[in-house]
Write a structure and sequence with these properties.
heterodimer, A: 317 residues, eight-stranded parallel beta sheet, 8 strands, B: alpha/beta, Aldehyde Dehydrogenase, Chain A, domain 1
């Protein structure tokens, strides 16, 4: 790869023919105040009755039901899979979730538990959640998770390298992980809570989509703040621009911190009014969440009966 | 491990549009069902008299006219029409209370009344918002979040000045003028009443106010609030009627000060009518304000600003950003994003909390807007309108963009006062500034760039009373507002807003 090395005290001149433009950031700038105002407008939408019910069920079908604890047991993963397939015994009309998201060593168990269903198994890989290990291990982990049966890989970027300005390295890593994924879909996690500005969020979104991400995802859930509406809006706008430019539709996954139906509906309003209805399906949109599913169920029951039930009536996993 | 470097980072998303890409699908799979604001708690009398000397009275003419809901053309109430005799009564009442009560009262006491009025407005905010929306057609979301809170804020702000006037004009002692005649428009009925009444009362003047004939109800509700606040009779008188009533009022001999907000045409007439008198005057008139979008702007946020600038309150805003000037290199992408954004604007029942664009204020205004759109097409503009469906009853206009227009077009030169945006491109900064200034108006402007220094250099060259940077249509009682050229004279709001109501 042609790459111009800046030498101390020497400014590049036009006679140096080959400048690698990868060194220059060219993403549009983002105005934080404007983003927050737009978000406030989405949040002022009043979603009631049938339109609320539609949104609740849609949100359920977009869930990546997640358990990412070191204390996870095969039993817990199996229970989660059962919940994924049939979220509530008394509500057969509630759709199943999109995927179950686990660590690589749980993939096989989840895969078996979900046999016969249309639910995907997603595995976090590449040294999740920090990514602070060598690329070789990260690629090996990816391949292993795929060989165990993962349909989707949720990778993390090297935030340290990104923040240090080693953008080409970050780019190359995503390209390599995508290749290691084979047929599995690749979601690229930015951990936006560590990226410090919306300009950075926008730039990494552009970079990851150019490098081959199928989905871009806000957070691991291990860092606060996790997904926020402003960050998600900036990523959706990047997806829209990528679509304008290439015709390719990239998916979006906000993850972490989306614990209530109310917030999930705000995310869906934002999705509908930014990218339109083509993105309102599990192929192009996911919620990474663990507690959300039960609040959705509780709201669905409330819409049907007019009463809120205690969380004791909803299985934890 | 050898990385295959087939792909390189192509440079993020240079904003280009691939021609073959299908438009975004803002379909109908998920519709927001109607979420109507309740109006049961709101009492609108079947008939309103004139508010003179603290009481509602029958008009001398005995004539009443209808005020309707522009969203369904239903009659809301019957409103008294004041003639010369009523105008005289109102001005005399204002004069009496000026001489006997208000000019003698201490600033501190005047301030107490203003604070009380502001608090009652807040208490009755929901009712006022509903009435504003029913009578004027603006979305309930806007009445609730903009009109009413800002109106109360103006009373709070000027209440604070009432006992501190000596500090507003250092070394000079301000005195009130006397009776102020105030004529206000239909686009922000209660807010404009607050802009006019609050500084006048704070400085010790008394008022005769005439609201617009299509939107008199919130001014009459405000009269009820004055009663509730025990404001001494005659300090504020509210007379309703048409243009003739307003003309009688501003030319009445007993008036010391005229304040008008409305069209440039009427403003010029008023200015002529008071020639040769010692009446003081402030005029807040029309505008044809420009957004300047530079290529280094945050494009998505700029698009949102354009939408907010022209579609806020159906474009019935004197400082609406009705001309879009966009730098050539980003014109295509800005328009594409703008059109996609516009498709998500919900046009319909103003009482629905999800409505973004409500009803056009009157049949007359709707015809005027339609006339301008037709004129733009005849002159050669390219028309874009959203695919929204309009209700069958009431007055409506689709959000409209006229692109490929020239500076000479009527739609570029004249104020449309509706949801119609014209688009022109510019290449250099100088060209952009020249185009922005090249109209008879000079009320407001918007500068959109990520570069701070550019904001200052461009805005200092714009001949406009207000210039917003990376935002639009932001109002605050502490900030002065007013125009250059045919957009008016004098300033309202802030310390500057006290000046038109005092002498030294």
């Amino acid at each position: 790869m042609p790459r111009y090395q800046f030498r101390e005290g020497v400014w590049p001149t036009m006679s140096l023919q080959k400048i690698d433009y990868s060194q220059f950031r060219r993403s549009p700038t983002i105005d934080l105040v404007g983003v927050e105002e737009r978000v406030a407008k989405f949040n002022s939408r009043s979603i009631k009755k049938e339109s609320k019910m539609f949104a609740l069920k849609l949100a359920m079908s977009l869930c990546d039901l997640t358990t990412l604890d070191a204390k996870d047991t095969p039993g817990k993963v199996k229970q989660l899979c059962a919940k994924a397939m049939r979220p509530h015994e008394d509500l057969p009309e509630v759709p199943h979730v999109a995927a179950v998201c686990v660590y690589p060593n749980m993939v096989k168990i989840a895969k078996k538990a979900l046999e016969g269903s249309k639910i995907n198994v997603a595995a976090v890989a590449t040294g999740f959640p920090s990514g602070m290990t060598s690329l070789k291990f990260r690629l090996d982990e990816t391949r292993w998770a795929v060989s165990e049966g993962a349909d989707e890989i949720d990778m993390v970027i090297s935030r340290g390298k990104f923040l240090a300005g080693e953008w080409q390295t970050v780019f190359d890593e995503i390209v390599a992980v995508k290749e290691a994924c084979g047929k599995a879909h690749l979601k690229v996690i930015f951990e936006t809570g560590e990226l410090s500005s919306l300009d950075q969020v926008r730039f990494i979104s552009d970079l990851a989509m150019d490098a081959g991400a199928d989905f871009i995802k806000t957070s691991t859930g291990k860092v606060q703040p996790a997904a926020t509406l402003p960050v998600t809006l900036v990523m959706l706008e990047a997806i829209r621009d990528f679509y304008y430019r290439t015709g390719k539709k990239i998916g979006m996954k906000p993850a972490g911190g989306i614990a209530t139906a109310k917030i999930a509906i705000q995310y869906l309003v934002m999705l509908k009014e930014t990218l339109g209805e083509d993105w309102m399906n599990p192929h192009l949109y996911r919620f990474g969440a663990s507690a959300l599913a039960n609040d959705l169920l509780r709201q669905i029951v409330k819409e049907k009966t007019g009463r809120y039930q205690s969380f004791d009536y909803f299985s934890k996993d | 491990m050898a990385l295959k470097k087939k792909k390189t980072l192509s440079g993020g998303s240079v904003l280009k549009v691939k021609a073959s890409v299908a438009p975004l699908n803002f379909g109908t799979q998920w519709q927001y069902v109607e979420a109507l604001e309740g109006s049961d708690h709101v009492k609108i009398e079947p008939k309103y008299g004139l508010f003179i000397d603290g009481k509602f009275v029958e008009p001398h003419s005995k004539k009443y006219f209808d005020t309707i809901n522009p969203a369904n053309e239903k009659v809301l109430s019957k409103i008294a029409e004041a003639d010369a005799h009523d105008v005289n009564l109102a001005v005399e009442a204002a004069r009496r209370s000026y001489d006997n009560v208000w000019s003698k009262m201490s600033g501190k006491e005047r301030g107490k009344y203003l604070f009380r009025i502001a608090r009652i407005m807040q208490e009755r905010a929901r009712e006022l918002a509903v009435v504003e929306t029913l009578d004027g057609g603006k979305p309930i979301r806007e009445s609730k979040s903009v009109d009413i809170p800002l109106a109360a804020a103006h009373f709070f702000y000027y209440a604070g000045w009432a006992d501190k006037l000596e500090y507003a004009f250092s070394g000079r002692s301000p005195r009130p003028l006397g009776v102020a005649a105030q004529v206000i428009p239909w686009n922000f009925p209660l807010l404009m009443a607050a802009w006019k009444i609050a500084p006048a009362l704070a400085t010790g003047n008394t008022v005769v106010l005439k609201p617009a004939e299509t939107t008199p109800l919130t001014a009459l509700k405000l009269a009820e609030i004055f009663q509730e606040a025990d404001l001494p009779p005659g300090v504020v008188n509210i007379i309703t009627g048409f243009g003739a009533t307003g003309a009688e009022l501003v030319s009445h001999k007993g008036v010391n000060k005229v304040a008008f907000t409305g069209s440039t045409e009427v403003g010029k007439k008023i200015n002529r009518a008071i020639l040769g008198t010692d009446k003081r005057i402030t005029l807040e008139l029309g505008g044809k304000s420009a957004h300047l979008i530079f290529e280094d702007a945050s494009i998505d946020q700029a698009v949102e600003g354009i939408v907010n600038g022209i579609f806020f309150n159906q474009g019935h805003v004197c400082c609406a950003g009705s001309r879009l000037l966009v730098q050539e290199s980003v014109e295509k992408i800005v328009l594409r994003k703008l059109f996609d954004r516009m498709q998500t604007l919900a046009v319909g029942d103003p009482m629905d909390k999800n409505t973004d664009i409500g009803a056009i204020n009157s049949h007359e205004q709707m015809k005027k807007i339609e006339g301008y759109i037709a004129s733009g097409k005849t002159e050669g503009a390219k028309l874009f309108q959203t695919s929204c469906r309009l209700p069958s009853k009431g007055f409506w206009a689709k959000p409209t963009v006229l692109s490929e227009v020239a500076q000479s077009f009527r739609v570029v030169q004249e104020e449309i006062f509706g949801p119609v945006l014209t688009v022109q491109s510019f290449r250099t900064v100088e060209e952009g500034i020249e185009k922005a200034n090249n109209t008879p108006y000079g009320l407001a402007g918007g500068v959109w760039t990520d570069k701070g220094s550019k904001i200052f250099s461009v805005s200092s060259h714009l001949r406009a009373g207000v210039v917003w940077a990376n935002t639009y249509n932001k109002f605050d009682p502490t900030s002065p507002f007013g125009g250059y050229k045919e957009s008016g004279m004098g300033r309202e709001g802030g310390i500057s807003g006290l000046l038109p109501y005092v002498q030294f």
